[in-house]
Amino acid sequence: MRLTFLGTGSAMPTGERFQTGLLLESGDDTLLVDCGSGVLHGLARTSGGYEAVDAVLLTHHHLDHVSDLFPLFKARWLAGATELTVAGPTSTEALLDGLFDVHEYMQDRLDLTIREVDEGAFSLAGFDIAATEVRHSMRCLAYRFAAEDDHGGDTAGVTGDGSIVFSGDTESFPELVEFADGAAILVHDCSFPDDVDVSNHPTPSSLGRVLGEADSEVGRVYLTHLYPHTDGRHEGMLDSIGGVYDGDVRFACDGMTVDVS
Ligand SMILES: [Zn+2]
Ligand SMILES: [Zn+2]
C-alpha cells in the first residue's frame, strides 16, 4: 500500500501546504481520504491524477477537509470519469445534498454513490477499514486502512502489520493509540506547538505523552494538519515529543510518499 500526503496543512494556508488530503493506493485501488482546499491540485500532480480516485472517504465535515469536493466533482465530470463513491460520517448525504442545491448545474453530472459510515469495520474501494470516533469539535472518525490484496512494495524500514492509521482532527487520547496498535504508520494531527493554548487538537507534549504512556506500538508517526504557528518550530516540536516518547516521529509534507507492505 502506498500513502501519498496530498495536503498536510490546515484551515490557515501558508502557501507551502494544501489543506487535508491523503491518497492510498494498492494495485488498481485508489482511495482519497479528505478533500480540503488544494487537494485537487495535489491529485493532479500524481501519476493517476484525479480521474484515478475510486472513492473519497471523509473524516469529518470541516471546510479544510471537504472544500475541494465539488471542484473534484466538476473536474471528474469534464474528464468523463463520472463514477465515484463518497463516504463519510453521519450527515455526509445531507452535506452533499445541500451543496448540490447550491450548485444546481452539477446535479446528475456524476454517477455518485454516497455512503454514511460509523464506528466499526467496513470495506471501501478495495480497502478494509476500521473506524473509531475521535475527540474534536464536530463528529470526526479516525480510520485504520489495510489493503484487501497485499500488492507488495518497498517497506522502507517501517515496521508494523502494513496498515495505516489516520487520526483525522483530534486531541490526543490513549484509546486512539490503542486503535493504531501494530500499524506501520500513524498519521496524527499535530496542529500547533506547545505554547499555543488549544482544544480539539493536540500539542506535541500531549501527543508525546499519550504515545509514550501507551502499551501500543506503531512503526512510525507522521505529524500533519500543520498550522502556520508550526513554521520554523519543527525541531522544538519533535524535541517535545522525543522527551516522552522514543518512537520514530517525523513531519509529513505535501507530495511525500510512503510505501508499506
Ligand atoms: Zn476539524
Ligand atoms: Zn482540519
What's the helix and strand layout?
Elements: E1 2-7, E2 21-26, E3 29-33, H1 39-44, E4 55-57, H2 63-66, H3 69-79, E5 83-88, H4 92-102, E6 111-116, E7 120-124, E8 127-133, E9 141-147, E10 164-166, H5 174-179, E11 185-189, H6 204-213, E12 220-224, H7 234-242, E13 249-251, E14 257-259
Parallel strand pairs: 3-4, 4-5, 5-6, 10-11, 11-12, 12-13
Antiparallel strand pairs: 1-2, 1-14, 2-3, 7-8, 8-9, 9-10
Helix pairs in contact: 6-7
Bound molecules: zinc ion (ZN) (2 copies).
Features:
261 residues, alpha/beta, Metallo-beta-lactamase, Chain A, 7-stranded mixed sheet, 7 helices, 14 strands, globular, binds zinc ion
Q: From N to C, what is the helix and strand string?
A: EEEHEHHEHEEEEEHEHEHEE
How many distinct helices?
Answer: 7
List unreliable stretches of 5+ residues: none
- CATH-defined architecture: 4-Layer Sandwich
Overall mean pLDDT: 95
Q: List bound small molecules.
A: zinc ion
Query: Percent of residues in beta strands?
Result: 25-35%
User: What Rg, in angstroms, do the CA atoms define?
Assistant: 17 Å
Beta strands, count: 14
SS-derived structural category: alpha/beta
Strand order across the largest sheet: 6-5-4-3-2-1-14
The named CATH superfamily: Ribonuclease Z/Hydroxyacylglutathione hydrolase-like
Give the oligomeric state of the chains in this entry, treating copies of one chain as homo and distinct chains as hetero. single chain
Characterize the biggest β-sheet. Answer: 7 strands, mixed
What is the helix content? 10-25%
The name CATH uses for the topology is Metallo-beta-lactamase, Chain A
Distance between the termini: 6 Å
Please write the CATH class name.
Answer: Alpha Beta
Tell the overall outline.
globular
